[in-house]
Structure formats: structure tokens, C-alpha cells
Design brief:
With about 280 residues, the chain is α/β, with parallel strands linked by helices. The chain contains eleven helices and twelve strands. About 40% of the residues lie in helices and about 20% in strands. The strands form two sheets. The chain has a six-stranded mixed sheet, with helices on both faces. It has a six-stranded parallel sheet with strand order 9-8-7-10-11-12. It binds 2'-monophosphoadenosine-5'-diphosphate.
């Protein structure tokens, strides 16, 4: 008898723009796995999220990725959570098991992998600078700590929010007005704000102040090369864009649910860039 296709997907609102279905479909095709990965739009409330998860489990879904605004709901819904998900307070992966559901956070490991592949010899023994203190910055902070960062500075337009994360994760805060000077001593700079996204003003840092060899990362992937990443390229520094993070965060889900290889390579990147260009 023919086995049933494997089912997985991504939960969010909005979710139609997500590139995750394309990433998983490419991997499934490469590994000749019979499976479907679909976007599922779910309104923001916990109740809607929980009902949808119950339904997907009943249908036989292997697991789901979870994006905004449901990452905290995913952790709350889970029966068990990884240390990373608990520490972040959010999950972007839910795996359905016979006993319930398991929450994990591959945004953390995705950022780590993206940085390591852009700069294999990176040393973060100096300072790291995190710009932004919204939902995305928590996973980045934990990833930096996992990469061995000893000293992490956080700065945010609303300084109270930076202070909150600094207290929780043992970071140093920096006034938003000082961000340009702080770049001078950072081995790694990461933008977690929405500045630089299409339709938003750029993040106004000074290329001349970027430390030689420092990694410049941006979680934004529309555009692929934000004004910040352009600056990094012009002064010859390694850059990590949001697309690299997106591809790397997707791999653990594919391996867990579809059971195949999930290679992050140039062909995958080219396919995603092509899709983004088609949408413009
Ligand atoms: P996410 O979950 O993607 O991090 P978020 O929680 O809405 O989204 O956070 C957005 C981040 O971008 C915040 O750090 C926000 O700063 P505030 O906390 O001051 O709102 C930052 N941000 C958005 N627009 C900005 C702007 N025009 N200037 C500076 N920072 C901005």
C-alpha cells in the first residue's frame, strides 16, 4: 500500500508572503519525498491558534513552523519545550508526537549557522552590538551568547525595552543616539529593527566606523541587500542577510518532519532570490 504523504506547514498572520513553502518543497523534491508544506493563516488569538493546532494534529500533520504573531502561542500550546524555546520565550517549530507537541526555536540556531557560514573564523571575544529590542532580538541575543560572545550591547529607540532585555539576558545597554560610535568596537553588528526594510527608512550607520572583519547582519530580507548590508559590502566586511537566516532556520524542521537532507546551498538561494524578484 502506498504510504500517506507527509504534511507540514507554516502558521502565521499574514502568511501568504512566506518563503518557507518554497524552501520545503525544493528540499522534498530533491530528496524525492512525497510531502506537502502549506501556509496556514490563523488569526492572532491563542484560542484560534490552539484550535488550529488540534485540527492539524488530528489530520496527521508531522509538525509546523510558526511565525508572527504566534511564536509565543506556540510555546504556550506545547506539552514540552526545548531549552532554547523556553529561554527565548517563543517557538518557531512545533513537532507533533504521539504524546503531544514539542516546541523548539530554530531561529536561534539558524542565526548561528548563517553567521558561521558567512564568517567561519569569526571571533566574538570583543563586543557584539544588537540594534532593536522587539520579538526578533531575543533569539539573536541567545544565538550570540551561544557563539561565545562575552560582551553584548543592546540599543533600541525605546530605551526601556532595551533595558528589559539587558536585565533578563545580562547585556549592557547603550543610548540609541550612541549607535553610530558603538559600531567602532563591535566584532558583530546585527540589525533586528525594521529599519532598512522596503518602505522604511534605512538604519543610518557610518561605514567608515565599521571594524575591519566585523560581521554585519540584518534580519530583513526585503530587500535582500539592505542599506546596512550595502555599506558592509562597500567597506569589504562579511554580511549576513535575512535570507541566509531564513534558510538555516528551516532546515531542522525539514529534517524532523520529512526525514530528508536539508542542504542550504547556492541553488536554494538562487530559487528564493528568483521568487522574491518575481514578486516585485
Ligand atoms: P520584531 O518582532 O520583528 O522584532 P517588533 O517587536 O515590532 O518586531 O520590533 C520592531 C523593532 O524595530 C523594535 O526594536 C522597534 O523599536 P521600538 O521598540 O522603539 O518600537 C524598531 N523600530 C521600528 N521602527 C523604527 C524606527 N523608525 N526607528 C528606530 N527603531 C525602529
Amino acid at each position: 500500500m502506498r504510504e500517506k504523504p507527509i504534511l507540514a506547514g507554516v502558521i502565521g498572520s499574514p502568511v501568504a508572503h512566506s518563503l518557507s513553502p518554497l524552501i520545503h518543497t525544493i528540499w522534498a523534491h530533491r530528496a524525492q519525498i512525497d510531502g506537502y508544506y502549506m501556509p496556514v493563516e490563523v488569526p492572532a488569538s491563542y484560542d484560534d491558534f490552539a484550535k488550529t493546532m488540534d485540527a492539524l494534529r488530528t489530520i496527521g500533520f508531522a509538525g509546523v513552523n510558526v511565525t508572527l504573531p504566534h511564536k509565543e502561542n506556540a510555546l504556550r500550546y506545547s506539552d514540552e519545550a526545548s531549552e532554547l524555546a523556553s529561554k527565548t520565550g517563543a517557538a518557531n517549530m512545533l513537532t507533533f508526537t504521539d504524546n503531544g507537541s514539542y516546541a523548539d526555536n530554530s531561529d536561534v540556531t539558524g542565526f548561528e549557522s548563517a553567521v558561521k557560514s558567512a564568517a567561519p573564523d569569526l571571533s566574538v571575544k570583543g563586543a557584539c552590538l544588537v540594534l532593536g529590542a522587539g520579538g526578533a532580538s531575543r533569539a539573536i541575543i541567545i544565538a550570540l551568547q551561544n557563539l561565545g560572545a562575552k560582551s553584548i550591547f543592546i540599543t533600541n529607540r525605546t530605551e526601556q525595552k532595551a533595558a528589559g532585555l539587558a536585565e533578563k539576558f545580562g547585556l549592557k545597554t547603550l543610548a540609541w543616539a550612541k549607535r553610530k560610535d558603538a559600531v567602532e568596537s563591535a566584532d558583530l553588528v546585527v540589525n533586528t529593527t525594521s529599519l532598512g526594510m522596503s518602505g522604511q527608512p534605512p538604519l543610518d550607520l557610518d561605514g567608515a566606523k565599521i571594524k575591519p572583519g566585523a560581521v554585519i547582519a540584518d534580519i530583513v530580507y526585503t530587500p535582500m541587500e539592505t542599506p546596512l548590508l550595502k555599506l558592509a559590502r562597500e567597506v569589504g566586511n562579511p554580511g549576513v542577510n535575512g535570507l541566509a537566516m531564513l534558510m538555516h532556520q528551516a532546515a531542522p524542521g525539514f529534517r524532523a518532519w520529512f526525514g530528508g537532507e536539508a542542504e542550504v546551498d547556492e541553488d536554494l538561494r538562487t530559487a528564493l532570490v528568483g521568487e522574491l524578484e518575481r514578486r516585485r
